[in-house]
Write a structure and sequence with these properties.
The protein has helices at residues 12-24, 42-54, 69-75, 89-99, 113-125, 132-147; strands at 2-7, 28-31, 60-65, 83-85, 103-107. The protein is an alpha/beta fold and 149 residues long. It has a single domain, classed as Ribose 5-phosphate Isomerase B, Chain: A (3-Layer(aba) Sandwich), CATH 3.40.1400.10.
Amino acid sequence: MRVVIGSDHAGFELKTLLVSHLESAGHVVLDVGTDSEEPVDYPDFSAAVGREVASGDSERGIMVCGSGAGGSIAANKITGVRSAVVHDHYTAHQAVEHDDMNVLSLGARIIGLTTAIEIVDAYLAATFSGEERHARRLRKVVELDRNRG
């Protein structure tokens, strides 16, 4: 799978470790930065991840910042992105299966590497169920996105 990943300075270290994990698992990884722990603005990297996913050039995206919240909020401003902050295994796969989440947002100051890997693996292994009730709800979400609320 082609995965785009980005982070701000707070997420840089975890992002770097996740890139290695993803590549070891056979994924094609596009790292859109940042490239150090020098302070940067998370919206710039969330937008880069979101645009890559919305364009269809990458199948899934991952954003890593301090809490995950800012990264998710910014990514969701890109039309076509469905992002959530995830800090547990169940939500990692459920948000894809029920809500077709395409950008995962992680909080590097909240979770450790082992949990992050578990979440990323569950997220990437999951697929949208397509069940009628989930498809109906997703159509409503897409319509909200298209009309900007």
